[in-house]
Design brief:
mainly alpha, Arc Repressor Mutant, subunit A, 4 helices, elongated
Length: 102
């Protein structure tokens, strides 16, 4: 993943994404660059328009976000309902014990 991040950083700064620049970024970040991984990344990105890929990825995430948030609301409501039921049953139990010792 760090090689993809390196390529994105190089692209953002307007540099040319080639093996040497990718390896320099990895090394500058404290990693040990792997020639094979750098070469594979550069080959994989040779036909990719990075700006378009980033825009498409952002649109896909935005489209997925409402579905995830809508599904997250129901469990919260169920938890509140369970808490109320637990509190009510605890109060009933305490009242029953009070009757025994009252």
């Amino acid at each position: 993943m760090e090689y993809v991040y390196a390529a994105m950083l190089i692209h953002k700064l307007g540099g040319k994404i080639d093996e040497d620049t990718v390896k320099k970024v990895i090394q500058a970040a404290g990693g040990t660059p792997d020639d094979g991984r750098a070469k594979a990344l550069v080959a994989a990105l040779s036909d990719v328009d990075i700006d378009t890929a980033i825009k498409e990825a952002a649109v896909a995430q935005v489209a997925a976000a409402p579905a995830a948030s809508a599904g997250g609301a129901a469990p919260a409501a169920e938890e509140k309902k369970e808490e109320k039921e637990d509190k009510k049953s605890a109060e009933e139990a305490a009242a029953g014990l009070g009757a025994l010792f009252g």
